[in-house]
Design brief:
- There is one protein chain.
- The protein has about 290 residues and is α+β, with helices and mostly antiparallel strands.
- It folds into 2 domains: about 5-165, Regulatory protein AraC (Jelly Rolls), CATH 2.60.120; about 175-290, Arc Repressor Mutant, subunit A.
- It contains 11 helices and 6 strands.
- Strands 1, 2, 3, 4, 5 and 6 form a 6-stranded antiparallel β-sheet that branches.
- Strand 3 (about 45-55) and strand 4 (about 60-70) form a beta hairpin.
- The longest helix is centred in the middle third of the chain and has 19 residues, at about 150-165.
- The chain is elongated.
- The two termini are about 40 Å apart.
- Pfam families: HTH_18 (PF12833).
């Protein structure tokens, strides 16, 4: 829609998040900012009322109601607002902020589980209860209370438990649907890393193990499902995509081979040279000279 806006975090929120690992704020209006989709390194729980579409992994979520929404850095998402009318609260935190808490609670929550819904529509009673939690977090976050971080973590876990009560983890997904979803999320995570914009921001997910950890699944399970759905092993998808990006950088950028190697996550240029030759049959320098 022509009147839609893409929401990103304002600078004052990201600054606070970087310093403290936690931020809670009230949503009063849509921030009219258009920016390219970027990977996020934070978790977010939103309680809001509005008319919008959320693109979350392979799901398209159309909303025109009061809802609770969970997002995490492993699954890319974009929120597109269709009107300027929006109100509610957002709680944003890093994984480090929750360090030491009960990992089982987090891993079984909508923040971490692959294949479960991140969206919960709320009744009036649920909205009132969750609103009280957010208001408590707002008051505590701005207070001098010595143990406020512990209290804030308790509030986050309380919201998670409330969501789990609304919609327990579903057991009805067929193996085929689960396989397709996990394979798609792997492909989406792989593609979202590109293009590489700067050698100073190197590729973070380079191995099947990296992707398995990001999706909170065992590497053998991920490999089996990706091969089952796409016909190719996980490692082949990764190698082909890195090689494609390497070719593009060699052809269309003035980066040195060393910069390209580092940007693609190789510790040493020699490793990149050997990798590129094994995958493409040519060395990076000879490929660049051909200007294919």
């Amino acid at each position: 829609m022509s009147n839609a806006t893409i929401t990103e975090l304002p600078g004052y929120i990201t600054a606070d998040l970087q310093r403290k690992g936690f931020k809670v704020h009230e949503i009063l209006e849509t921030v009219d900012i258009s920016q390219s989709h970027r990977r996020r390194d934070y978790y977010k729980i939103v309680l809001a009322t509005g008319n919008m579409t959320i693109y979350y992994g392979d799901q398209v979520l159309d909303i025109n109601d009061t809802f609770l929404f969970f997002s995490n850095p492993h699954i890319p998402h974009t929120v597109v607002h269709h009107t300027e009318q929006k109100k509610g609260y957002a709680c944003i935190f890093t994984e480090a902020f929750m360090a030491g808490r009960d990992r089982e609670i987090l891993q079984n929550s909508p923040l971490f589980r692959v294949g479960t819904t991140p969206l919960f529509f709320l009744t009036k009673d649920q909205t009132a209860f969750l609103t009280s939690i957010y208001q408590k977090m707002l008051a505590v976050h701005n207070s001098p209370y010595d143990y406020k971080n512990e209290l804030l973590r308790n509030c986050i876990e309380l919201i998670i438990h409330e969501a789990l009560q609304m919609q327990p983890v579903p057991n009805g997904l067929t193996q085929r649907n689960a396989a397709s979803r996990i394979a798609w999320l792997f492909m989406e995570l792989l593609e979202r890393q590109f293009p590489i914009e700067s050698p100073k921001d190197p590729l973070r997910l380079r191995t099947a193990q990296d992707f398995a950890e990001s999706l909170s699944v065992h590497i053998n399970y991920l490999n089996r499902l990706v091969k089952e759905v796409t016909g190719k092993p996980t490692s082949v998808h990764i190698a082909e995509r890195i090689a494609t990006e390497a070719k593009a950088l060699l052809q269309h950028s003035n980066w040195s081979v060393a910069d390209i190697a580092y940007g693609l996550g190789f510790e040493y240029t020699t490793y990149f040279n050997n990798y590129f030759k094994r995958v493409t049959g040519a060395t990076p320098n000879s490929f660049r000279k051909k200007k294919v």
